[in-house]
Amino acid sequence: MITDAFDDSEVLFGPRDFFGEKKNLCEKCIIVFSEQIFEYMLETFEHNEAGVIRCCNGTTPVYIFDIEGMKIAGYLSHIGSAMAGGDVIDANWLTGAGKFIMFGSAGSLDSKSTDGKFVIPTESYREEGMSYNYVKPADFIEIKNSDIVKNIFDELKLPNVQGKVWTTDAIYRETRAKLSARKADGCIAVEMELAGVQAVCDFYGWELYNFLATGDVLDQENYDVSGLKDANHNMDKLYIAIEIAKRI
């Protein structure tokens, strides 16, 4: 059973086996899911390559950016809890960063609560596999720095709502029954990475700061995808992430 996957026995191998000795180049890292936003970062900010995450279907360069006097790592993450969680481990090894700022799009489960607001997750429902290898089984995982992110958004006078979210790896298995169950649990949005990435960060003692922009809407009679492009690619999220980096 996946819920029996967690144990704290000795691992068989780790990032040293792929990358050699760990680097210590910076403290903070921005995790990006939008190719458009990441290309903008490369065009806008001076940067140097810290290393490359390699796998058989491609490579993921990790860079150190000079942003407003800060050295901040950044990379274009893979999608989905397992791959995004693995990328965090590799990025830490290649840069030394232990404070991760992650943002992306989400589907709204409660459009009255989320309309026109950023979502700041407080907990995430663990309907994925990655988290069960890094923390003991439970329905939800706490998003520990939610209140810190909330305070920063309030400082910046940005509209926001805190609430539970739902992490799933199965984008096409978000059913009406599950929607009803997650809403009954108090979830206001659904996404694909948070539970796994938070579990990895908890396991290694790293800090995660997460916020979301809702794009598609699931709680209406007809599925509405009209806001998804903006939620994925609007540059405002990058500059919010930079403001968070200044304050943590």
What is the H/E order? HEHEEEHEHEEHEHEHEHH
Largest sheet features: 5 strands, mixed, barrel
Strand proportion, as a percent range, falls in: 25-35%
Oligomer state of the chains in this structure: single chain
Q: Any low-confidence stretches, pLDDT <50, length ≥5?
A: none
How many alpha or pi helices?
Answer: 9
Shape: globular
Average pLDDT taken over every residue: 97
The strand count comes to 10
Judged by helices, strands and strand pairing, the structural class is: alpha/beta
Widest sheet: strand ordering: 5-9-8-6-10
Distance from first to last alpha carbon: 38 Å
Secondary structure: helix percent? 25-40%
Radius of gyration: 17 Å
Question: Could you outline the blueprint of secondary structure elements for this entry?
Answer:
Blueprint: H1 16-19, E1 28-32, H2 35-44, E2 47-55, E3 58-67, E4 70-76, H3 81-95, E5 99-108, H4 111-114, E6 118-127, E7 140-142, H5 146-155, E8 160-168, H6 176-184, E9 187-191, H7 194-204, E10 207-217, H8 228-233, H9 236-247
Parallel strand pairs: 1-4, 1-5, 5-10, 6-8, 8-9
Antiparallel strand pairs: 2-3, 3-4, 5-9, 6-7, 6-10
Helix pairs in contact: 3-7
